[in-house]
Amino acid sequence: MSSRDLILGRLRSALGEPRPAPVEVPRDYRPAGAVAADVDLFVDRLTDYRATVHRCATPDVARVVDDVLGGRQVVVPAGLPRHWLPDSVDVLPDDDLPTGRVAAVDGVVTAAAVAVAETGTIVLDGGPDQGRRVITLLPDVHVCVLRADQVVATVPDALARVDPHRPLTWISGPSATSDIELNRVEGVHGPRHLHVVITA
Amino acid sequence: MRIALFVTCLADTLFPEAAKATVRLLERLGHEVVFPEDQTCCGQMHVNTGYPDEALRLVRRHVRVFAPYDVVVAPSGSCVGSVRHQHATVARRAGDERLASRAEEVGARTHELSELLVDVLGLTDVGAYFPHRVTYHPTCHSLRMIRVGDKPLRLLRAVRGLELVELPQAEQCCGFGGTFAVKNADTSTAMLADKMRNVLATRADVCTAGDASCLMHIGGGLSRLRAGVRTVHLAEILASTEADARGAGRDAAGVAR
Amino acid sequence: MTAPGRPAGATGDGTTFLGMPATAPPGVGHLRGDEPFPAAARRALGDAQLRRNLRHATTTIRDKSGAVIGEVPDWQELRAAGRAIKTDTMARLPELLEQLAAAVTAAGGTVHWAADAVEANRIVADLVRATGADRVMKVKSMATQEIGLNEALEAAGIEPVETDLAELIVQLGRDKPSHILVPAIHRNRAEIREIFLREMPGVDPGLTDEPAALAAAARRHLRETFLSTRVAVSGANFAVAETGTVAVVESEGNGRMCLTLPETLITVMGIEKVIPTWRDLEVFLQLLPRASTGERMNPYTSMWTGVTPGDGPQQVHLVLLDNGRSAVLADEVGRQALHCIRCSACLNVCPVYERTGGHAYGSVYPGPIGAVLSPQLTGVADNASLPYASSLCGACYDACPVMIDIPSILVHLRAEAPHPRAEAATMAAAAYTMDHPALYAAAQRGARLARLAGPRGRGLPPPLSGWTASRDLPAPPPQTFREWWVER
Ligand code: SF4
Fold it and tell me: ipTM for the complex?
């Protein structure tokens, strides 16, 4: 007998006959669409977890990127709007760069799929303006640009908007740990600096 | 109202003052208290130590003895918790569905003292007088099993002369846990030490609670320390009156000598 | 191999031949301690530094968690939904696992089934060997600790590297984990600094005990490992049957490194981690971070569905582990222990855990959930002291984000535990006496006389001596209540 059949057989006999009655899941919590998104709350949550927030008009994104990463080398996904990048940064487009190459750059600029106000979370789904997961992981500075209308209120709102078949990365503040005396300390393996740029 | 007293084996044997105070209080409030003499023990110790089969006869007895009464009161959150939440389980485990549903009925009519006073009788001021600095330990089973909430505190706040001081980390277990205090005596003692430290920090004269078992545990520790803080059951405080305080031969807790 | 006294759930209608629920085998993994809880607890209680560390950490986390839970207006509704989803999952577990396996396979992943720890360890070691690698990096996972995967890999000549900071502290300190979420919770910053100075190659000798400095040291130490290791092993927080999506919730980014950089990813998950639908994640992703680290959301959550061409590992394996879970499922009362999402909230509020720490529980699953899960996974006889390692205060039940009624399971398991003969005789006699009011009244009088022999309860025979060692029993009253009632 295969282990698959063995395990499934064990589970069926564990449950017995008749099977336990089906359970209705009470979804009395706030579902997707129940709450309006509040960008100010999003900013507050991001700041609370030591992300740096910049709010600006769309044409000013390049200026913000210049402030954060001017003079440094930056990896970008192939589909990133070029007008977000100032001349002052050394742009390295990701065309399947080797891991070591990605690890050597100073920063990364991406867009995001959606963001959650209540938790201060940005979600990346590997779209053309966000790129492979590795490029937002190894550089020490991540600048993430999103439009205010990409901010939703709650976790259910965000899940309803993303495609489970894409690789998803939910990011809430810079890399951190609670492993030393259960205090949150920022800066372990992921990017130590997270900048979120919100355009009107 | 005719109220049946479920005295609990611990109060019956070791802490009769809490039970007598319950009788005095309810009679003072104009109610008739009856004591079904065939009662013994709810079986909680057996259930919680892993002997539900032995507990079954005690559940059967308890249900038979108290089934005739519309209102039952016990001066113990823990024993009420057992009656309300464990008796039916013990019966079902033994395959006795009829006993289980009768146990549920009895459980629904059984009240811890503060529940009876506040929910059933609609009282918070019971006319008590107790001129002492008092702190209240909310005992785990009163707090989390039967969820008496702030009813005991509301009753205590209405007691004249009583100065209520908040117990730090009040919701932490005192470490009694019945069989736990015996089987895990070291851990139980460590929990008790913290509870006593918090009681002493209040500089109260009296530590009260709705469960004689936890009070026995805390009181036993305080006595070993010769700390000078007394443990007094909530029922005894609520039963105390100005006449008791003035009366000769009684101390201020209303405890007969 | 069903535990004695446990309803197997088999019906004799022909389904049993496929396999009876089985407990986790002995001799492999870390579900059984070397000594009973009270003995291990006694030693832990004597360690003042340990108690200070635990008190500090559990107090911190309780406060943080309480604050962020207070921000959510629908916390109780989320808990109720979480409980119902898990109850529903367990009722349909075989079908959901088949659905999950099909979805993962369709997305390019490979699914393996492991009946127990031995088989799971063999599957993982074989998969690693097939890649030619002699080192794997690991994301913290309870399932792989449970089965003793690290030891099995070492025996196969493969070096496992723990990448979670707390696991690294434990591994470098040749220590054992003591908490589900923060395995090094028993260590304070000064102790961690000493471990790093002693064990971390090339560490800056001027390292301070600032948490940020310690975290930075771990970052430097592991960077090269992340970039050069070709195989990673992870656990899973959730796996969605509907889509085949696996989710890992973490903080440091070591998880992302392991889930993104290697060529081969092997995920070992307990079969109870499956959830039915994508939408169900909206409940658990709200419950878990607030209950566990006390954050609104943990820094990183990764989700993947099979293989994504050009992004991340191109060989993706999922090992579905039973190892006693079918035996837990067979117990109608105890099966809710399988609902656990490993948040560790019950540990953090437990007055017993706070004082003894996690090592006293023997198993990798400590605290209240460990006290109900370990004995069920192994059979109660192999962890017989654990169901008693609780005062039944109920704080765990209130804290649990999926509302597992741990106190009721503890009481239920105590009935299945083997009882000392003398205790059983005493309990039977006590029940008989208490069922006969006249005998009972006589016993009350007898107890009063006996108690007069020893002043204030001292000098009682065991087991009551355990109780009186540090407390006085009250002086026996002159009259029982029922004597007073008759006289009045
Ligand atoms: S039993 Fe509940 S509180 Fe404890 S770890 Fe599991 S989910 Fe968390």
Answer: 0.96
